[in-house]
Amino acid sequence: MLRTHTCGELNMQFTGQFVTLCGWIQRIREMGGMTFIDLRDRYGITQLVFNLQVQPDLFAKVKELGREFVISAKGRVAERSSKNTKIPTGDIEILVDSLEILNASKIPPFTIEDNTDGGEELRMKYRYLDLRRTVVRTNIELRHRMAILTRNYMNEQGFIEIETPVLIKSTPEGARDFVVPSRMNPGQFYALPQSPQTFKQLLMVAGFDRYFQVVKCFRDEDLRADRQPEFSQIDCEMSFVTQEDILNTFEGLAKYLFAQVKGIDTGDFPRIGYDEAMREYGSDKPDIRFGMKLVELNATVKNRGFKVFDDAELVAGINATGCCEYSRKQIDELTDWVKRPQVGASGLVYIRYGTDGTLKSSVDKFYSADDLKAIAAQFSAAPGDLILILAGKMEKTQNALGTLRLEMGKRLGLIDPKVFKPLWVVNFPLLEWDEDSKRFYAKHHPFTSPVPQDIPLLDTDPGSVRANAYDLVINGVEIGGGSIRIHNRDLQKKMFQVLGFTDELAQEQFGFLMNAFEYGAPPHGGIAFGFDRWCTIFGGGESIRDFMAFPKNNSGRDVMIDTPSSISEEQLKELNIKLTS
Amino acid sequence: MLRTHTCGELNMQFTGQFVTLCGWIQRIREMGGMTFIDLRDRYGITQLVFNLQVQPDLFAKVKELGREFVISAKGRVAERSSKNTKIPTGDIEILVDSLEILNASKIPPFTIEDNTDGGEELRMKYRYLDLRRTVVRTNIELRHRMAILTRNYMNEQGFIEIETPVLIKSTPEGARDFVVPSRMNPGQFYALPQSPQTFKQLLMVAGFDRYFQVVKCFRDEDLRADRQPEFSQIDCEMSFVTQEDILNTFEGLAKYLFAQVKGIDTGDFPRIGYDEAMREYGSDKPDIRFGMKLVELNATVKNRGFKVFDDAELVAGINATGCCEYSRKQIDELTDWVKRPQVGASGLVYIRYGTDGTLKSSVDKFYSADDLKAIAAQFSAAPGDLILILAGKMEKTQNALGTLRLEMGKRLGLIDPKVFKPLWVVNFPLLEWDEDSKRFYAKHHPFTSPVPQDIPLLDTDPGSVRANAYDLVINGVEIGGGSIRIHNRDLQKKMFQVLGFTDELAQEQFGFLMNAFEYGAPPHGGIAFGFDRWCTIFGGGESIRDFMAFPKNNSGRDVMIDTPSSISEEQLKELNIKLTS
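Structure tokens for the assembled complex are given below, as produced in the milestone run.
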């Protein structure tokens, strides 16, 4: 080794020892005839001292040094006269005897500090420098720790990690596939997996009753802050289980990670039904760190002559506690906010509960003081509160109100970033109707089993069929989701029919799975966790990008290596394709 | 859980308990009024007993059952009258009270037995059934165990697993890339990584001084038995190290895996130079489980009028101990064997050392009895031995003799499959001359550093430059290889020049790495192990395919899911490509 110790481990116990450290120069300070250098590596920072009067021979070399130079320094550990209590090595310094420059550095394009002066694009281009910053490095270290804890926990529970292929088959269901032209099979393509879903089900048919994999998945989608073309899943599947077994098993994993990584005992996770989540939180991934639940007002407010409410499928609201002093301007701003397309409400009705006990609303024309009092009572509102009401189509209004609830929670400081509230959402609908294509889509995926007693409804009222499906939600973020799968060929065939697949198409795309179901498929189910998201939530980050070593930007580009990029005519020719643009 | 126990855990301690087992029917036997069923799961086999006279109500259901049906059976654990000592559950059986058919099965296309009647193609098509066979299942279990042991060992040593991207940049050096058209960047492509080489070097520049990853890699090559389009590597890199540090660190990993997986203490691994390996074993991945070393005869046999030897760059042989009784026919067959293009020798000279002490050769005309005696002495040959000699160009003859050595070792039963002999091969040449393209190629890859004292030779005699590179070889199989890398921009630039890159091309392809070297790149080096191969060697298999859950065939096809396959016109259009064939 070129070093005897790291820059993070020396303290008073080492004084008097001769050591060799290697690292990057964080900072150089000159004071009189002394030069102080903060030397940094992955483990910490140690102060080097050069006394240029005692060692004039080092003078020339020290003068050459600059920020981010890589050096090796040999010397004696000594107690510092002025200690730095902020770092573990702050009691000591190294009195350097000899110095070697292992590599020079140009001046980096941004400062290697927690609060850097580099913008995102510049930092992405020089990601190898960005990764030197402690805040970024610790994200990557957290990710490693979460992965190894997960693997060991799963292994302890008897799960086997099995690598499924990356070069698989393109299927039209779900998001867009990335494809890979096959040179050896002209005109044909592999696809990169959106998830190992069918393979893990085949592994259940193969008898590997407890499978998991931390695995890369791929989706060719237009990107947002929390989407990347490649991302990682903790992918899991079990045989001979009920939904209850799966929830218990993976609640175990989540509790273990909470305890090990965050030092938190979360207690048992609450479970709430999809309908209840939508009704009370206006979201299928509710943030239950705060209350402000939605209250339905249909029975109270309808048939009083206010057409907006009378025509609405749902009238509901939330209580913004303590907001009665909101100015006209603030309420107008809030009204504009809910009318933005991202929220999609058509207007906002409010009721002010004055500190003097009076109630005033924007719809006083239709509702008496007693009416307003009755409404306020439904919210358990008190003087000083402000009730915000939306109306319209059921799901749209629930969603809008859920979004408004989160916004008000943020504005009122009700959301504590240090608190973690995991929960299970269960009893999802099996299918979603798509108005554009006039067909049902699988809410989870086409292999999700219906709740057994709802199977007859597949023929009569598919939209009302509930699924044996569940999501793990933490602080309003969906961390994972899964389901008990269909393991019966006929039911799977039926499901494809409901989704509008012809028998031929179903056979062409998923024939291998349906065939497998004819050779003794066990009852099975599973779950997949968004590993990047889970790391992001535990690390307290904003974007999954911050928890990936080499993420891509919103155009799917890696600006550091400058890819995607053109390939040679020869490569295209070998692959039997040509460009159309 | 649908079961209380697995089919592998019940024994005499459980007698009298009521249990529920789930699994697949391995075998059904009827004897009088009794039906015996072997129920199988991942953990073992347990015998179920149905007494149809006592439980006539089960009769109809039992009659329906067939091989590979999935059932759930509930009953009491009882001692068997005739025990089966071959399996851990052989002392007991389950007296079944109730039976549920969880799924039926068609008759499988081949038997689910260690010695199956299914050919490879059929088994690949029904891989989910093939994986039910114990021999295949244990391979996959071994792979999981090797992966988790590796990860924990590396973690203990302070290495961080970091996921590098799968969608990267196509580079012309090395094997052919798989590419992925980018929809969002028309006309541009990602490539799938042949290895994370440049990324792990960037991670060193980023300061993550100990990186590893168990990672999928991709090569679009024509396939052989031990090649797959996607395969897995244990990829590792360290900073501030010398070659010695890397060999010690990863010899530690290898010893740990040998101890944990095989229960073997290998002792320290010998290290031999590339030149020595070629000279003594005719191979840069010598199988040192047996001797039969190559002996050079140039000094002894040249200038005696035998033109074949006189013209040869190398005359060398091996001693096939105890083979002096080989018949003319056997020697002719061996001569034909070495002349096959895979071996490439032009002929075979032999010297028989008769049991009576007489020496006879196929070149008696040129060499006297004393000459032959002198040659035999060089081989330490004894009466009864047979010396086999090849001659020709240096490297070609070494390789041919190395191949002949392995063949004779096999034929003479000198190679014990239960013995493991790991070693390091070091001091590889940096470059290889390619006669076709009249240029040098990097023997390892273009980032390998030359031995420092050989750097000046890059200008004068590139072919003689030695590399700071090393391979780990076990039983004649290269399990891993690596090098100390170049961390200096100028030397890297020089290396690309020697490889015939223009500055522009080097900048276009590897500019990001060379730029990174300007910002404080530490000295670093690493290694990558072929994880599939390592599993195969530890599992005693022939092909890496047997240690992958879902391998592809020699045309790169997955015959189970039937891919690669055609994609829709719409997909092609979105990707801005069209087919040319």
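Chain B touches chain A through 123 residues (CB under 8 Å). The mean pLDDT of chain B is 95. Further analysis is deferred to the final report.
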